[in-house]
Design a protein that fits this description.
With 422 residues, this protein is an alpha+beta fold. The chain folds into two domains: 234 residues, 3-Layer(aba) Sandwich (Protocatechuate 4,5-dioxygenase, Chain B); 173 residues, 2-Layer Sandwich (Glycoprotein, Type 4 Pilin), CATH 3.30.700.20. The chain has 15 helices and 18 strands. Strands 1, 2, 3, 6, 7, 8, 9 and 10 form an eight-stranded mixed sheet that branches. Strands 12-11-13-18 form a four-stranded antiparallel sheet, with helices on one face. The protein has a four-stranded antiparallel sheet with strand order 14-17-15-16. Strand 4 and strand 5 form a beta hairpin. Helix 6 packs across helix 9. The radius of gyration is 26 Å and the shape is elongated.
């Protein structure tokens, strides 16, 4: 039976000969048969060529007796850019861990294109880098991830089954640090352990995730019990996809009150206000900016891009910083407190984009980044200044201390949305 609800993010399937592991793999592929996925990303280990990092097969296709599975060249390029991993031809020559999966994909999802990724040594840096790239690129696309791995190799049956049971428990518990430690020590857990951990880290970035074990077996039925290989089929699915964050009118009013109280208390008492809450939205980690105006003119604006602290703490800190630490202005005086106009912008997570035409003025804020330089403009800024998209991009570059056309030549572009209230 399929997992009890939730979006499937990735499947784990074995890659031994079909007579050994094909039936186990079928338990995974039947979950997605006939679905409308447009692309399948295959993450597989390298058996024959040792190298650092990953190799992404970028163009052309894989030919099987069922026809040619075409490469999704656009998606491959996006993952390559986000991860920094390129194509290494030797990594794909004679590598069966990718090839075994493709006929299953051709039967279950005949319309889908593929992106084969072969991982070299399962180092922590490689594993996390790939996971971060997938989390950046895949959300919003009709894409499925297939992780190609067999379990322990050539133990006697009893030891093999015990070893695999412990590994499966670590997978289900998302014990990624323990798995990485064992893989880096070369423990005999999985030949595709690195790809498995990358998929776990990626899935966790998407929300609350569960691993459903679909089938487990080993090679003893055909190969005897003295040297056994284990085979696992599993699915990673979202239990509760990350909901859109929102604030009620009452919550907005309370945050504005908190911002004003924080400023007043610090200016008058030189102390940070004490505040506690059980409100789940206020306890959620969020990036936010506080903008201060006086008689219609900017008086200070400071914020945190990244969600480093609970929202209520971020509002307290950025309110005080906007009043006292914006280098463009002197600190707010006691006499000015009653005249301050306060605006709060609660930021969504940053999303890296390749195509600037995706930017919608009035909806999106911008971050332009290159090297150690970074500039942010809130969504309301281009509206207030009557900028079109290209001017918005140029101004964000200048804010970062970059040439105004850096967005065309190597700078990274991020967009975000914001809940803005005053």
């Amino acid at each position: 039976m399929p997992p009890p609800g939730g979006e499937i993010l990735a499947l784990i399937a074995p890659h031994a000969g079909y007579v050994y592991s094909g039936q186990t793999a079928a338990h995974a592929y039947r979950l997605i048969q006939g679905k409308d996925y447009e692309s399948v990303i295959i993450i597989a280990p390298s058996h024959r060529y040792g190298f650092k990092g990953c190799s992404i097969y970028s163009r052309g296709g894989y030919e099987t007796p069922l026809g040619t599975a075409k490469i999704d060249e656009s998606l491959a390029a996006e993952i390559s850019k986000a991860s920094g991993f390129k194509y290494i031809s030797k990594a794909h020559q004679m590598e069966h861990s990718v090839e075994v999966q493709i006929p299953f994909i051709q039967k279950a999802l005949p319309q889908a294109e593929i992106v084969p990724i072969v991982m070299g040594y399962p180092a922590k840096k490689t594993i996390t880098r790939l996971a971060d790239a997938l989390a950046e690129v895949v959300p919003g696309k009709k894409a499925m991830i297939i992780v190609s791995t067999d379990m322990s190799h050539f133990f006697p049956k009893e030891k093999a089954n015990d070893t695999d049971s412990k590994t499966i428990s670590l997978i289900q518990a998302f014990e990624t640090s323990s798995l990485i430690s064992k893989l880096e020590k070369g423990e005999n857990l999985m030949c595709g352990g690195g790809p498995v951990v990358s998929s776990l880290l990626y899935a966790r970035k998407r929300g609350e995730v569960k691993v459903e074990i679909l089938h487990y077996t080993d090679s003893s039925r055909l190969g005897g019990e003295s040297q056994v290989v284990g085979y696992l089929a599993a699915a990673l699915f979202l239990k509760n996809p990350n909901p859109n964050f929102s604030l009620s009118p009452e919550e907005k009013t309370e945050l504005l009150r908190l911002a004003r109280s924080s400023i007043n208390h610090f200016i008058r008492e030189k102390k940070i206000i004490n505040y506690s809450t059980e409100n789940r939205n206020f306890l959620a980690k969020k990036g936010a900016f506080v903008t201060l105006k006086r008689k219609g003119f900017l008086r200070g604006c400071i914020g945190f891009i990244e969600p480093v602290a609970p929202l209520y703490q971020t509002v307290i800190q950025t309110s005080v910083y906007a009043a006292c630490q914006d280098q463009r202005f002197p600190p707010v005086s006691t006499e000015e407190l009653d005249d301050l106009e306060i605006e709060i912008s609660v930021l969504s997570p940053l999303k890296k984009i390749q195509d600037p035409s995706l930017i919608t003025v009035g909806k999106h804020g911008l971050v332009i980044s290159k090297g150690d330089k970074k500039g942010l403009l809130l969504p309301q800024v281009p509206v207030e200044n009557n900028w079109r998209r290209e001017m918005f991009l140029k101004q964000a570059c200048l804010k970062a201390g970059l040439p105004q056309n850096a967005w065309k030549s190597g700078a990274d572009i991020y967009i975000f949305e914001a809940i803005i209230f005053q």
